Amino acid sequence: VCIHRVRSCSSFIKSKYVCVFDKSALKFSHQQRLFRTSAVSCGQIVQFKLSDIGEGITEVTVKEWYIKEGDSVSQFDSICEVQSDKASVTITSRYDGIIRKLHYSIDDIAFVGKPLVDIEIDASKGVASEEDVVETPPMSHEEHTHQEIKGHKTLATPAVRRLAMENNIKLSEVVGTGKDNRILKEDILNYLAKQTGAILPPSPKAEIVPPLRKTEAVPAAPKDKARRVPVPVSRPIAFSGKDKTEPVTGFQKAMVKTMNAALKIPHFGYCDEIDLTQLVQLREGLKPVAEIRGVKLSFMPFFIKAASLGLLQYPILNASLDENCQNVTYKASHNIGVAMDTEQGLIVPNVKNVQVCSVFDIAVELNRLQSLGSAGQLGTSDLTGGTFTLSNIGTIGGTYAKPVILPPEVAIGALGKIQVLPRFNGKGEVFKAQIMNVSWSADHRIIDGATMARFSNLWKSYLENPASMLLDLK
Amino acid sequence: MVLQSLKNCFWLSCVLRTPKACFWSTASGGLIIQSVSNDVYQNLAVEDWIHDHMDLEKQQVLFLWRNSPAVVIGRHQNPWQECNLRLLRQKNIKLARRRSGGGTVYHDLGNINLTFFTTRKKYERMENLKLIVKALKALRPQLDVHVTDRYDILLDRQYKISGTAAKLGRTSAYHHCTLLCNADKFVLSSVLKSPYKGLKSNATPSVPASVKNLFEEDSSLTSEILLDAIAKEYATQHQIDHHITLINPADETLLPGISNKTKELQTWEWVYGKTPKFSISTYLNMAYKDSVLDVKVNMDVKHGRIEVCDIDLPEQWLPPGLYSELVKSLTGSKFCPNETTTLVTTLLRVHPQDDELHSRWSLLCENMIMLM
């Protein structure tokens, strides 16, 4: 049975009702949990009644349970949320123990003063003396699990305390950001990060990132959520992280479907480097003109238009192979897809009929698609009907890539970043060139290397000498 | 009225967990703070922070805040039932779910929000509302305003100018309410009207009411004047200085942990995922070629995700394989137009390209997405 200790007046910290036996109970229960499977649970079952809500309210509606039968709870953990007349009340546990029975279901009416849940409290509870903080490493078990500073207990669940102990951390040094200043697992992680200078991943399932030399770009994806720049960790950290399994849904599900279909396509790759020195200058000059017209002009509209001009000469790259590989359909429209990285994941809207659009038209349409994409408001027509795709992974980084074709298309191009590199001109002099790499992938069932190479050369020539685009513009 | 920057105020050192001797004992009774931000998530996060971290035993707090256009639903409400989500997305109006109960409200800069923080024991909504009415009457004695037993404030006995909600925790509680000064009533009524049909749920429903702005009653009233009058009355009743401390909800040093709280309030899991389980039973009216198809749709949505999905299409209207793939794809996915659009457009990629199929598919999917 707990005794409530009234907090001292000199503290301005939120009042905590602490059970004198609390610390020891927690300590023992922490240890006991390790042996729980072998011991027969013979704790006392206490009926936790719904306490007074105030304002003379006698009944409330149960809206959400935060725990279920069989869960273990600590004192002050949230048990459920009830509602009464525009007031939402969080009911917290007065005990440590295991939930044995929920007396109500969601939307039931619960009564003040009547049992809400049954909690089995741990039978064995000894009295342990309160210990002050002692600065002698290594820390003794007690100091890690429950520390006292000048009469104030630090709140933390057994799991958090275990984590602190495993990493030799004094709870008193950690700033708690949870309810009632309780120390959360994130607080321990942040503390550790500050100690080692390492950037710790927020979830235990972070991947080991391989050195970024060749971007093995998964699909045409400029997005790579799991990748973070690896920061060298100065010393190994003992970490009690747990694997987390969750179902594949939403955007990930869509990617799984697309990529499984793409597997059926035999891909071949073809890469090249493009000297964009002239295009960079041209765009600098045209950017303000576009701005006056209210449009942001990037390099993409040029890349897209040049691709369309190329497709006019090599229409097989804008085709589709039927399921039985019996027929090839040459698509009349050049609906060029642009891979976009949004908060939720990869999406590929397309610009319709590029063959009849000017570079400016394409820029306008791209602006529209980009703002809809970032707001999560792209429509079905924007996302279907694509015939050819470009992925500008270079805005994030990378040089060469290995893009994956998006069925039912037969080709895709990934554009790396523009780098300033030394090159030789016709006179054998070194000059500063703006170099970008392009990596094409094509369906080898109907496209051969020569076709891809010639298309790429044509596309390259339009971009290296933008004035030549004028000759072929329709 | 004196606005004091927080740098000069020591009150925060008193409430952080490192106990320090401070001048706290000279302050008494109450504290009035005002947010410099108009971001609904940041302001709601401040409420959470004060609720979780401040000791209200000796000092009660009045928090004043205003938001740029946003719809705020109560803790246990269903946003599809309460507002026109399509319109919100179009107009870029934010949607937030607060932690207190009650109904849905529309906020813009013409609406002021007042939060009264007390200990759980001192939680008393009537007193707070009476304070507001007293302040209004002191300002403009001719105003006919009074508090109803539903905790609303009515103007001229018929127009609602304030709605109330509350949150009670273990040791502290807050009561917040709105006050309509000069909000855009046209936008208010259009966003708070749900176009979604066939919804069945146990979520808390809102009670619609006729509203009126105080500005319409007396055009000399502004938000600032009203805020000041209420602060003055609060100061009088709590016997404190009539000054308002400004706080910046983005200041992590001042309010440690606040950015996490702000982020949490913006997550899909909180805003949509906390919707109590509901079902939809409705008809899609699809105009296809020369006829109109009435297609019955039944869906169960739990935690904002589609648990069950059943679409009663005419036989062979879609190849059966494709229909079952559609249902399989939707099951477990968010009840959200963006996610659904991505899934359905992907499914089309991996199926034989047939113009007829393509147009039927697009028609069905667009109609389904309209339900979200």
From TrEMBL, chain A:
EC number: 2.3.1.-
Catalytic activity: N(6)-[(R)-dihydrolipoyl]-L-lysyl-[protein] + 2-methylpropanoyl-CoA = N(6)-[(R)-S(8)-2-methylpropanoyldihydrolipoyl]-L-lysyl-[protein] + CoA
Annotated GO MF terms: acetyltransferase activity; dihydrolipoamide branched chain acyltransferase activity; lipoic acid binding
A Pfam entry, by short name: Biotin_lipoyl
Cofactor: (R)-lipoate
Basic and acidic residues: compositionally biased ranges: 140-151
Region described as Disordered: 128-152
Enzyme category, top tier: transferase
Subcellular location(s) per record: Mitochondrion matrix
Domain of life of the native organism: Eukaryota
InterPro entries: 2-oxoA_DH_lipoyl-BS, 2-oxoacid_DH_actylTfrase, 2-oxoacid_DH_E2_comp, Biotin_lipoyl, CAT-like_dom_sf, E3-bd_dom_sf, PSBD, Single_hybrid_motif
Residues covered by the Peripheral subunit-binding (PSBD) domain: 155-192
Keywords: Acetylation, Acyltransferase, Lipoyl, Mitochondrion, Phosphoprotein, Transferase, Transit peptide
Transmembrane segments: none
Domain Lipoyl-binding: 45-120
GO CC entries: cytosol; mitochondrial matrix
Its job: The branched-chain alpha-keto dehydrogenase complex catalyzes the overall conversion of alpha-keto acids to acyl-CoA and CO(2). It contains multiple copies of three enzymatic components: branched-chain alpha-keto acid decarboxylase (E1), lipoamide acyltransferase (E2) and lipoamide dehydrogenase (E3). Within this complex, the catalytic function of this enzyme is to accept, and to transfer to coenzyme A, acyl groups that are generated by the branched-chain alpha-keto acid decarboxylase component.
Family statement: Belongs to the 2-oxoacid dehydrogenase family.
Protein name according to UniProt: Dihydrolipoamide acetyltransferase component of pyruvate dehydrogenase complex
Source species: Callaeas wilsoni
Lineage summary: Eukaryota, Metazoa, Chordata, Craniata, Vertebrata
Gene: Dbt
Automatic annotation (TrEMBL), chain B:
Pathway: Protein modification; protein lipoylation via exogenous pathway; protein N(6)-(lipoyl)lysine from lipoate: step 2/2
Domain BPL/LPL catalytic: 56-242
Keywords tagged on the record: Acyltransferase, Mitochondrion, Transferase, Transit peptide
Function recorded in the entry: Lipoyl amidotransferase that catalyzes the transfer of lipoyl moieties from lipoyl-protein H of the glycine cleavage system (lipoyl-GCSH) to E2 subunits of the pyruvate dehydrogenase complex (PDCE2). Unable to catalyze the transfer of octanoyl from octanoyl-GCSH to PDCE2. In vitro, it is also able to catalyze the transfer of the lipoyl group from lipoyl-AMP to the specific lysine residue of lipoyl domains of lipoate-dependent enzymes but this reaction may not be physiologically relevant.
SUPFAM superfamilies: Class II aaRS and biotin synthetases
Gene3D superfamilies: Bira Bifunctional Protein, Domain 2, CO dehydrogenase flavoprotein, C-terminal domain
A GO biological-process term: protein lipoylation
Protein name as catalogued: Lipoyl amidotransferase LIPT1, mitochondrial
Organism: Callaeas wilsoni
Localization terms from the record: Mitochondrion
Gene Ontology CC annotations of this record: mitochondrion
GO MF, any single term: lipoyltransferase activity
EC number(s) given by UniProt: 2.3.1.200
EC top class named in words: transferase
Catalytic activity: (R)-lipoyl-5'-AMP + L-lysyl-[lipoyl-carrier protein] = N(6)-[(R)-lipoyl]-L-lysyl-[lipoyl-carrier protein] + AMP + 2 H(+); N(6)-[(R)-lipoyl]-L-lysyl-[glycine-cleavage complex H protein] + L-lysyl-[lipoyl-carrier protein] = L-lysyl-[glycine-cleavage complex H protein] + N(6)-[(R)-lipoyl]-L-lysyl-[lipoyl-carrier protein]
Family: Belongs to the LplA family.
Database matches in InterPro entries: aa-tRNA-synth_II/BPL/LPL, BPL_LPL_catalytic, LipoylTrfase_LipoateP_Ligase
